[in-house]
Design brief:
GO molecular function, one term: DNA binding
Helix content: 40-55%
Structural class: alpha/beta
Mean pLDDT: 84
Number of helices: 12
CATH architecture of the largest domain: 3-Layer(aba) Sandwich
Strand content: 5-15%
InterPro entries: CheY-like_superfamily, EvgA-like, NreC/VraR/RcsB-like_REC, Sig_transdc_resp-reg_C-effctor, Sig_transdc_resp-reg_receiver, Tscrpt_reg_LuxR_C
CATH superfamily of the largest domain: Response regulator
Modified residues (4-aspartylphosphate): 55
Number of strands: 5
Strand order of the largest sheet: 2-1-3-4-5
Domain Response regulatory: 3-120
Keywords: DNA-binding, Phosphoprotein
CATH class of the largest domain: Alpha Beta
CATH topology of the largest domain: Rossmann fold
Largest sheet: 5 strands, parallel
Distance between the termini: 43 Å
């Protein structure tokens, strides 16, 4: 029997997931969280957790950054990413950045149970139909080293980095983040230092290798406008 932390900001899906798990998988306790911050608090309060089920798109979880940070802070805790995305590149990155499994939100209870049992047995798991495309893809050590550097960024710096990859000007970034252009420049200087770059072009080329996801608030805004 396993103790799970289920991190997802949608109560209906979180409850449905827990119900699906309980019907096919033996659990001794389930802790629910609805943000990246509350997930970090739960991990501190429950060091005996056996598994973390993590939604990539919770508030405070900037794309892959949250996963990278959790992997760094809790290296022995298996992380199962639960996501609506079935994009192969996203799945490859998730697995390269240390997840033990990638479970689409469309998965049935049997598949979820199979994934959790595989992870507890020390295996990696992705849906069978994409195993060859995902698990046979090996990111270079250079990419993983870059991911570790990105993990050192603050959430605000991550947002600035993302906007740089989108080609935004400093004044556009400042307006969107409600900060001064001087603060944007300070963030860019810190990003240069942490990523070992000397100009914007180098930063953008480096960041594009990681296929950065938009910050949560930007992604939500894009969904509402579409």
């Amino acid at each position: 029997m396993a103790k799970l932390i289920v991190a997802d900001d949608h109560p209906l899906f979180r409850n449905a997931l827990i119900n699906a798990i309980s019907s096919t998988f033996a659990t001794k306790a389930t802790v629910e969280t609805d943000s990246f911050e509350s997930t970090c608090q739960a991990l501190e309060q429950h060091p005996d957790a056996d598994l973390l089920l993590l939604d990539l798109h919770m508030p405070g979880n900037c794309g892959f950054l949250g996963l990278i940070q959790l992997r760094k802070n809790y290296p022995s805790l298996p992380i199962v990413v639960i996501s609506a995305s079935e994009d192969l590149d996203v799945i490859r990155r998730v697995m390269a950045f240390g997840a033990s499994a990638y479970v689409p939100k469309s998965a049935n209870p049997i598949d979820i149970s199979t994934a959790l049992n595989a992870v507890l047995d020390g295996e990696l798991w992705v849906p069978k139909n994409i195993q060859k495309q995902v698990l046979n893809q090996h990111d270079t050590e250079q990419d993983l080293d870059l991911a570790a550097k990105v993990a050192q960024l603050t959430q605000q710096q991550y947002k600035v980095l993302y906007y740089l990859t989108e080609g935004w000007l400093n004044k556009q970034i400042a307006y969107d983040l409600h900060i001064s252009e001087a603060t944007v420049k300070a963030h860019i200087t810190a990003i240069f230092r942490k990523l070992g770059c000397t100009n914007r072009t180098q930063v953008v080329i480096q960041a594009q290798r990681l296929t950065l996801e938009p910050p949560v608030d930007r992604a939500m805004a894009q969904q509402h406008s579409s």
